[in-house]
Design brief:
about 110 residues; mainly alpha
């Protein structure tokens, strides 16, 4: 819940005011790096469930995971500065994700 999130902010010395004021700092970058790494692990765990899904659902979930992983990569490329820049996926990114998911299935 929100208490957990506030505890993480506190742990990284980031305040709600820093976020609402769009105040990017090294502490915020460390906080976001932690969140990106944590989310990568969740996606990895989720991939393990794909083998139990029927093909159509597997494809949808795989494209969702791959899209999320690409957004995380773009956040890393922004040095975790999501306060000043928004990572976005282009139509070409979506086409590539979908084709890779269909062709490689991973």
């Amino acid at each position: 819940g929100s208490g957990y999130a506030q505890g993480q902010l506190y742990e990284f010395n980031v305040t709600i005011n820093d976020i609402t004021s769009l105040r990017y700092s090294e502490n915020f970058a460390k906080f976001m790096r932690f969140q990106v790494e944590r989310t990568c692990k969740l996606f990895s765990t989720g991939r393990e469930l794909l083998k139990y899904l029927p093909y159509g659902l597997k494809l949808q979930i795989l494209v969702t995971i791959k899209g999320g992983e690409l957004v995380l990569k773009k956040i890393e490329e922004l040095n975790y500065n999501v306060l000043d820049f928004r990572p976005t996926l282009s139509k070409l990114d979506f086409i590539k994700l979908f084709l890779v998911a269909i062709i490689l299935g991973k």
